[in-house]
Design brief:
Helix content: under 10%
Radius of gyration: 13 Å
Number of helices: 1
Strand content: 25-35%
Oligomer: single chain
Number of strands: 6
Distance between the termini: 17 Å
Shape: globular
Largest sheet: 6 strands, mixed
Order of helices and strands: EEEHEEE
Strand order of the largest sheet: 3-2-1-4-5-6
C-alpha cells in the first residue's frame, strides 16, 4: 500500500459516487494511480487534503491512457469537492470515469504527520 502523501502527481482512474450521479459533489472516493504502482483508493476528504497541501497535482486518466483534465479543489460555499472545470457540473471530466460500488475508500492513504 502506497501513501498518497508520498506522490506529487497522480492520475484518477475511477470514482465512487453516492447519490448525485450528475454532479462531482456526489463523488465520495477516487481510485488513483501514480504510474509506477498498482491503483489505490482514497476518500475525497483525504484527496482534497492532499491537493490542498501544495505542490500536488492530479489529472483524470483519459481512456487512451493519456493525461486528461487537471483536478482541482472547488469550494461552493458549503462543501469542498473535486472538479476539473467551472460551468455545468454534469459535464465535469471526473464524471466520465468508470465507477465502482462500495461504502467509502477501503484504505486510508494520508500520512499522520
Amino acid at each position: 500500500m502506497a501513501s498518497l502523501a508520498s506522490f506529487t502527481t497522480v492520475f484518477v482512474t475511477a470514482v465512487q459516487v453516492n447519490g448525485m450521479d450528475d454532479d462531482p459533489r456526489g463523488i465520495t472516493a477516487v481510485r488513483w494511480d501514480s504510474g509506477d504502482r498498482w491503483p489505490e483508493e482514497s476518500s475525497v476528504a483525504d484527496f482534497v487534503r492532499w491537493l490542498d497541501r501544495g505542490g500536488a497535482r492530479a489529472y483524470v486518466l483519459d481512456a487512451d491512457g493519456g493525461r486528461g483534465a487537471r483536478i482541482r479543489v472547488h469550494h461552493d460555499g458549503r462543501l469542498r469537492h473535486l472538479r476539473t472545470a467551472e460551468g455545468d457540473p454534469a459535464l465535469d471530466a471526473l464524471l466520465t470515469l468508470p465507477r465502482w460500488q462500495g461504502h467509502g475508500a477501503r484504505k486510508k492513504h494520508m500520512s499522520r504527520g
